Each structure stands twice: as structure tokens, then as C-alpha cells.
Amino acid sequence: MIRFVDLERFEETFARMLSAFHHDGGLSFEHITRKIVEGDYFDFLEKNDWDALEAYSGKSYQTMLRELFGFEFNKNLSEEVGPVYWAGKAYMKVFFNYRIPLKQLFLLCPLEKMVGYFSPFHEMGFSSVCDQIRKEDCRASILKTLRKTRGYTVAQLSILTDISKTTLTYYELDNDHLFKASSDNMASLARSLKADPSIFRRRSFFNPMSRFLLRDAAFSQGLLQALTGFYGLPHDQNLPVFFQNDIEGDGLYVGQRNLLVINGKTISVPDSVIEDLVYARVIAFDGNGTLLY
Description:
There is one protein chain. 56% of the residues lie in helices and 4% in strands. The chain contains 18 helices and four strands. The chain is mainly alpha-helical. It has a four-stranded mixed beta sheet with strand order 1-2-3-4, with helices on one face.
């Protein structure tokens, strides 16, 4: 079953959380970055744990500070909106649109660096900073960055992982090489570098779809056209999208069974088919820089 999540709410919560941690909690950029990269607090994203995601969006920032950093903080938070808040928004835009694992994103573009993008990019819309991060930061060597963060040389890491120096150098040369590493080598790297496996993934396992996206008339019609074409069915420009299980006519019924009904013909559409078509057609931003999914 496809689960729906209010991504705008999650994005807002994340941005205000970072701002509260830094401005009110007095935490350094480096400390916040390290906790997100090395901790398990946001593992629910890669697990697609929707209940945990909803619970997160409803927590107070004092609770998050206690859970993530282990100390009580009873001061009323100011929820300041500034460069750190903007950085939180930027992380979420990149995460949602390019499906880069959050821990990998923070590793390659630490919070201090993201905040530094505020001045040149905040008046240009988030699409500009997303392009910058994708073209520049995300092309940096994941393994090399992580290895240096841990303080190892290639030779030392080779001994720890039992992976040859030649192979490690190959992995560091291009992230595509790392993404194609064997499962044994990937597990050895994660274990030796004390890193979450998501850091070594090409794409995040987080795979949301929102009601907003499928309720957008132009997008839903494009999706239905692609879906009817996929199954070789005639496309009616007036086919609607429903978010319920009760079948009352032709259309796409997104719910527990994802039924496509056309002229009495009913097809149960796997989540994977809908998701592939959605991500093939998704438009990252509208004219106002608003995230569409």
C-alpha cells in the first residue's frame, strides 16, 4: 500500500528543528552534522517508517534535543527563521527531489557549508542551490570524504576492511564505482567506518507520494495517460484520481489495492509501477519554488 505523507509539514519541522538546535540549543554546526550522519535518529526515513515520520513531525524541539543529543532543554524556543532555517529547507528540497540519502547529503554538504550557500542563493529559489549541490557537492567522493572524517589512510582502511588498496582507490575515484561495489565490500566498509549503509547508496529508500501531487490536475492526467499507455488501455482525459477503496466508476483508486478501472476493466496496479511513473514525470519545483512531492 502506498502511504501518503505531508512532506511540507516534515520539511518545515526539519528546518525549524535545525534552527532551534543551533540558535536556542547552542549546538555547533559540526555537532549537529555529526549527530545526523552518525546517529540513528532519522533512520525511519530509509526504513519508510511512516508512523515514526508522523510522530517526528508532531514532536516538540525540546523532545528532539533530548532524544538526539541526550540533554534536557526547558527554555522556550524562538524558532528563528534565518540562514539555518533556510539550510534545513534546502536539505529537504535536495533530499526529496534527488533522493540522495540524508546522511550522505550531510556528509558531503555539512551544515556549515549549506548555511554558507544562504547569501548567494536564498534570493534565487531553491532550485539553484539544489543544482549547485547536485553538480558540485554530490560529485565529491563519498568514500574519501568519510575515510578522511574517520582519520584513516587508504592503507589503514585496506587492512581494516580486507579490501585491496587498488579497489579502495577505484571506489574513491568515482561514486558510481562505489555504488557498484559487492555487498560484502559494502558491508565491510560500513562496519569498518562505523557508517550507515545508506551513505553508500545511489538513491535513498525513502519513497513518498503526496496527495498534493496526485490532486494536481495536470500531473494526475499525465500520470493516468502514462498508466493507461503502460497497460494498453484507452485514455480518457476526464479520468479522475480517488483516494479511497470504494469503486464507483472509472478512474485510478489509490489505496490498499491501487485499482485502475476503465470501461469495466479493472487492473490492480503495483506500487512500484505507480512510483516509477511518478518519478519519471515529477517536476521538482513550481514557479514559486514550492516542492511538488
